[in-house]
Amino acid sequence: MSQQQWNAVDDYFTDLLAPADEALSAALRDSDAAGLPHINVAPNQGKLLQLLAQVQGARRILEIGTLGGYSTIWLARALPEGGDLVTLEYAPAHADVARANIARAGLDKVVDIRVGPALDSLAQIGAEHTEGTEGADAPAPFDFVFIDADKANNAHYVEWAVKLTRPGSLIVLDNVVRSGAVTDAASTDASVRGTRSALELFAQHPKLSGTAVQTVGSKGYDGFAIARVLA
Question: Do 59 and 87 touch, CB atoms closer than 8 A?
Fold first, then answer.
């Protein structure tokens, strides 16, 4: 099959099962106008994330990699009343675009955007979960984690995800195929090495049970991994 066929199938699935509304369309449009890279999830993938979070019954979601907030909107819409989502973005300019997109979608009251290196933000969140903040009780663990940031640090993000979740939580790791290069144990590419290390954690960590799936579509040849946190 060709990329043209993959695109046509994705268009059919999206139009039928994950049609855009103004908030989602505007998020993509404004992200493009701001010069953000075209690396957001596809619409049908965004709907999959939303469904997974809903099936999970997630009340607290952690997203590592905000970009323009497109996937954030899909995920935040899965939350029940009283739920919240924390999303981490390295680039202040990207966070500004995401903040406007999320506010237009009416989700700014449930989404907390943390700006800066994700590992620094995760350490801060870890401290909040251990000690609480400003005299308040520590936040509840996250029920769902979506990792879609710099791939070199994927293993570190998975390690933090395990620390910040509970038994039964789900962790989704995006872009794991690396155009097939994920099979190359000798690769010197930091993204490949980081992804392989994360997948090895999925396989070997005593608190994780996971798998990975290859995909084709409007984003080309790719895939994702998913793991359940064990007791």
Answer: no
Q: What are the structural domains, with CATH classification, of the chain?
A: 3-229 (3.40.50.150)
Each residue's pLDDT tens digit, 134-158 = 667 889 999 999 999 999 999 999 9
Question: Is the whole model's pTM more than 0.85, yes or no?
Answer: yes
Rounded Cα distance, 45 and 14, in Å: 9
Q: Can you tell me the distance from the alpha carbon of 146 to that of 58, in angstroms, rounded to the nearest whole number?
A: 12
Provide the CA 117 distance to its chain's centre, in angstroms: 16
Q: Which residues contact 184 (CB under 8 A, 6 or more apart)?
A: 192
Alpha-carbon distances of 31 from 14, 24, 90, 104, rounded to whole Å = 20, 11, 16, 13
- Residue 202 contacts residue 208 (beta carbons within 8 Å): yes
CB 35 within 8 A of CB 117: no
Average pLDDT in the 53-66 region? 98
What is the three-state SS of the chain? CCHHHHHHHHHHHHHHHCCCCHHHHHHHHHHHHCCCCCCCCCHHHHHHHHHHHHHHCCCEEEEECCCCCHHHHHHHCCCCCCCEEEEEECCHHHHHHHHHHHHHCCCCCCEEEEECCHHHHHHHHHHHHHHCCCCCCCCCCEEEEEECCCHHHHHHHHHHHHHHEEEEEEEEEECCCHHHHHHCCCCCCHHHHHHHHHHHHHHHCCCEEEEEEEEEECCEEEEEEEEEECC
